[in-house]
Amino acid sequence: SVIALDILPMEPLPGVTFIEGDFREAAVLEQLLTTLNGRPVDLVISDLAPNTSGIKAVDQPRGMYLAELALDFARRCLRPGGDFLTKAFQGEGFDQFLRDLRAAFAKVLIRKPRASRARSAEQYLLARNYRG
């Protein structure tokens, strides 16, 4: 089964349990954990991104905070051997985050989607085979 969580409404999809809310809020995270009911997951995908101000010194820490929240969730819920895909932004905190991923997963791939603007610091990190 698939569980989707977003701050915005989503059209229903067959086989998808949808939770509308802000992942940063404890009550929303608790609802997600309750829905999982202790079952380990195979894959965590995070496309979390902050509302940007255009001020890199503000936006970068916000983006890294969201990536770290997603990694904390993945560590808590992934089964050993599971995978994690997340968006992160190159800049302060990125290298440490990458080291954390490499410590927790057997393989980490970095990809910049073609759809991303050339000057964007946006990267996607695919972490494979969670060590558990």
Can you give keywords for this protein?
globular, 33% helix, 132 residues, single chain, alpha/beta
In short:
This protein is of the alpha/beta class and 132 residues long. It contains three helices and six strands; from the N terminus they run ββαβαβαββ. The strands form two sheets. Strands 3-4-6-5 form a four-stranded mixed β-sheet, with helices on one face. A two-stranded parallel sheet has the order 1-2.
Q: Can you offer a commentary on this structure?
A:
Helix 2 (56-77) runs parallel beside helix 3 (94-104). It contains three helices and six strands; from the N terminus they run E-E-H-E-H-E-H-E-E. The model has no long low-confidence stretch (mean pLDDT 92). The longest helix is centred in the middle third of the chain and has 22 residues, at 56-77. Helix 2 links the parallel strand 3 (41-46) and strand 4. It has helices spanning 26-36, 56-77, 94-104, and strands at 2-6, 16-20, 41-46, 78-89, 105-111, 122-130. The protein has 132 residues and is an alpha/beta fold. The strands form two sheets. It has a four-stranded mixed beta sheet, covered by helices on one side. A two-stranded parallel ribbon has the order 1-2. The protein starts with a strand and ends with a strand.
